[in-house]
Amino acid sequence: MSTIDTVFTNAKLADGRLCDIGVSGGRIASIEPAGAKPATAPVVDIAEALLVASFVEGHIHLDTSFYGDKWIPHKPCTNGFDVHERVAFQAQNMAQAAPMIERARSQLELCVSNGTLQMRSHVMVDGSVGLTSLETILKVREEYKGLIDIQLVAFPQSGILKSPGTPELMDEAIALGADVVGGLDPGSFDRDVKGHLDVVFGIAEKRGVDIDIHLHDAGSLGAFTIEDICARTTALGMQGHVAVSHAYGLGDLAPEAAKKIAALIAESGVSIMTNAPGNHNFPPVALLRKAGVTVFSGSDNIRDSWWPYGDGDMLGRAMMIGYRSGFYTDEELSAAFDVVTAAGAKALRLEGYGIALGAKADFVTLAAEHVPEAIVAIPKGRKVFKEGRLVAQDGAVVR
Ligand SMILES: [Zn+2]
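Above: inputs. Below: predicted complex with zinc ion.
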């Protein structure tokens, strides 16, 4: 039997039970009713706060945020939202920003202090920046090892076919340490759905890595692209290994069409990431979940060239998802919570996630009666534990 290193007493679990959680070697080794057994190890009193698994930030951009840097005012597109124009604005802004490594550190501190201990970050890999951004973010990932688990996506921000050399760079990015191959609007950006997806799925197959594609395309173009992604996922036996981020087009479909494609997405094991953006239709979270689709979430942009919002708080993000989805009942509010926790862990295929025996002792305390209340109240003053060690308290990382 393993020796317990620490006992977290009087922890209220999501199901309402008051428990003592024993941690051994950074993993949960016992979950007993509070006070059932005398503690034989150092005790941390959770004082009946809600104790939940750490948040999963499933989509962020560590290389392009200005958080922690000077304020850079948002510049609107000249003729409605245009990805090409936004990418050009981003290049101008990046040229006057603080060093990427400093900005990435600031963003990580923000996320960890809010209770995020698992993250997937997209990092630009294209003809303009080559692998330099990835090299920087790989360094930061190493620095924050033990504090937060980070997956990196080789993200072709300037397209794959339109940016010479990008297919080779994306392949090299995986060899260098990126975990996931990305994509960007195969239809509207590269204007070649097949050509773009051939490269993405080709690298994934060759390197044995997962896929996460940005898809902002609306309506039928978005739906067409998702159908193609689903078909390829199934053909290659990659169910559970492919994600589509944003998938705005799913929010444009009539209910019957949405139901039909939801069944296909579920069957293909493709997960959908939404951050419940304020100015777009976005995927119907409840409809997708009902069909069996894994819906996860992320902040996406935090104070960058795309929008000035973002606070790195996935509990707040769950509130936004619930708010925009019209979630009112406890069951619906709990579903919003699932999107930023367990569903994120499933989409990212995280090992040892959750409040369960054998799982990593990665958890957050919340001053709330239960999960539905936490979603609407977004309590601060949290304590964050990574593998049983206190890593953040009251909004700041503890070292
Ligand atoms: Zn993104």
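DSSP finds twelve helices and 17 strands in the chain.
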